[in-house]
Design brief:
Elements lengths: L3 H22 L5 H6 L6 H10 L5 H13 L2 H19 L1 H7 L9 H4 L2 H34 L3 H50 L1 H8 L14 H18 L1 H8 L4 H17 L1 H14 L9 H13 L3 H36 L6 H26 L5 H12 L1 H9 L8 H26 L5 H22 L4 H12 L15
């Protein structure tokens, strides 16, 4: 439980975050500043923000369950797939996001396909994101609940409100500045925490020896090579733009070459830093013995070790986790409000809206979308934990929305029909193989089956359309012009955003 010193540290950290939000507000001169940093975010800051935005409290709660129960395979699940995804992304998608003169990840779909596809993917993408947002807010509530004993629903509502207020003030700049502060604080705590944990269990060799025998391999029952193969494709889609908030990090960088560096640097951080997160969880078998609720593992180890190092460190860790989750929520809620404002409201309801009016709409959308995120987190309490909710739903249904979005930048031939049919048949495949298959065959449906088939069918339909469908001469000219902007992609910069 938190001591008075811990509470003081949490409050002081909150003051720092409030200052960063207020400072970021002073940087907002236009809607471009609010929504995409006017493409002036330094590559190293965007890289750290991209990296930190991929953690949140889920890494300490949902992945804590996996690390405690499956051992070393938790790193196999989290580190290498994201590293591979970001290496691929640094070569393909990061520079393309940076080159385009856009506010949002779905804005380009109107030029590449048509207005209907842009609207469809904007609406459906926002709907899917609420599952992901609810998981993150739920995970943060678990951390605070373990440290304070406060009821989970109350924590979810309180944390959600704080997140909304912070984002309301500072937009994208607020999130990247907080990401940087959180990265410095959490990295500093790790330098103290992890060595102390290793000392308690006899170093690296002692850590390995105290782990159950079935947890010492890089694969496990939950993380099999087949599972990892399918999951890798989900991660490639998610971290390169299927998760809109992560795409915003590359959109906010002015030069494609710097976007490449940001993607690669973020990938390197993902490869190594998760070890610092997992080591305390792997040591829990020796330090704690059996844990009744494995989602509490990381915090229970922290409560045992950190107070012996210095007073207030536990409060600082909780504050940094809160900041990381708040920033991750801000990232995604900000992306959703940006998409709603520019891809839905402005494009379909008020094309002549002034810059000031769009800024007000975006801030109002932030409040509404934040409230819906709180509702989603309250529902996650009943979904058997954060890890199961993430695997069962968000990761599984990401494909139909993100696959045409990302591949539309790479393959020229598929038309709007391919994007639409990939979306339709992807969701049909998900429903059939997750729910229909067990009824027909009597066999249990698995993540590998329903997600793998969904991705495969969406991909085949999308690419097949490129060979079967024909565009009109006008559409063909527009698409060729779209792809021409990616010629010599390592040269030049994007100085301004299209209105």
């Amino acid at each position: 439980m938190l001591t008075r010193i811990d509470v003081v540290v949490v409050v002081l950290y909150g003051v720092l975050v409030a200052f960063l939000g207020y400072y970021a507000k002073g940087m907002i001169k236009s809607s471009s500043d609010y929504f995409c940093g006017n493409k002036r975010v330094p590559w190293w800051l965007a890289a750290i923000s991209h990296h930190v935005s991929g953690y949140s409290a889920f890494a300490f709660v949902g992945l804590g369950t996996l690390a405690y129960g499956s051992g070393l395979s938790a790193w196999t699940f989290f580190g290498p797939p994201i590293f591979i995804a970001m290496v691929v992304g640094s070569l393909i998608w990061a520079p393309r996001w940076s080159r385009m003169k856009i506010f949002t990840p779905v804005e380009y779909l109107e030029t590449r396909y048509n207005k209907f596809i842009r609207q469809l993917f904007a609406w459906s993408g926002i709907g899917i994101k609420f599952i992901d947002e609810g998981i993150k807010l739920y995970s943060l509530a678990v951390i605070v609940h373990v440290a304070t004993g406060w009821p989970m629903p109350h924590v979810i509502i309180a944390c959600g409100i704080v997140t909304i207020v912070y984002l309301f003030l500072g937009g994208l700049w607020a999130t990247v500045l907080t990401d940087f502060a959180q990265f410095i604080v959490q990295f500093g705590i790790t330098l103290l925490f992890v060595p102390m944990v290793l000392h308690r269990v006899g170093g690296i060799s002692g850590l390995y020896q105290q782990m159950p025998l079935d947890q010492r391999g890089l694969f496990s029952a939950q993380v099999s090579p087949t599972f990892l193969f399918v999951y890798l494709f989900v991660i490639i889609l998610s971290y390169n733009g299927g998760t809109w908030g992560l795409a915003q990090r590359f959109i906010s960088i002015g030069k494609p070459r710097e976007a490449r560096k940001a993607a690669f640097f973020s990938g390197v951080l993902y490869l190594f830093y998760p070890l610092a997160v997992f080591i305390p969880m792997w040591a829990a078998h020796s330090l704690l013995g059996p844990v009744e609720n494995t989602e509490h593992t990381y915090m229970l180890v922290a409560e045992k070790i950190l107070p012996t190092i210095a007073p207030g460190l536990l409060g600082l860790m909780i504050a940094s986790m809160f900041a990381s989750t708040m920033s991750m929520l801000d990232t995604d809620i900000h992306a959703m409000s940006t998409v709603f404002t520019h891809d839905i409201y402005r494009r379909s309801f008020n094309q002549k809206a002034s810059d000031r009016h769009l800024l007000r709409v975006g801030m109002s959308a932030t409040v509404v979308l934040g409230a819906l995120t709180i509702a989603s987190a309250l529902l996650t309490i009943h979904m058997q934990g954060a890890f199961n909710a993430m695997i069962e739903w968000f990761a599984a249904i990401l494909g139909p929305v993100s696959l045409p979005l990302l591949l539309g930048m790479v393959f020229r031939k598929p038309t709007w029909r391919g994007a639409l049919l990939a979306w339709i048949f992807g969701f049909i495949a998900f429903i059939f193989f997750k729910y229909g298959w067990p009824l027909i065959t009597g066999l249990q449906s698995t993540f590998v089956l329903y997600t793998g088939m969904e991705l495969l069918i969406s991909l085949v339909v999308f690419l097949a359309d490129g060979w079967l469908s024909k565009r009109s001469p006008e559409d063909e000219k527009r698409v060729q012009e779209f792809f021409r902007q990616f010629d010599n992609i390592d040269s030049g910069s994007t100085e301004s955003i299209s209105s």
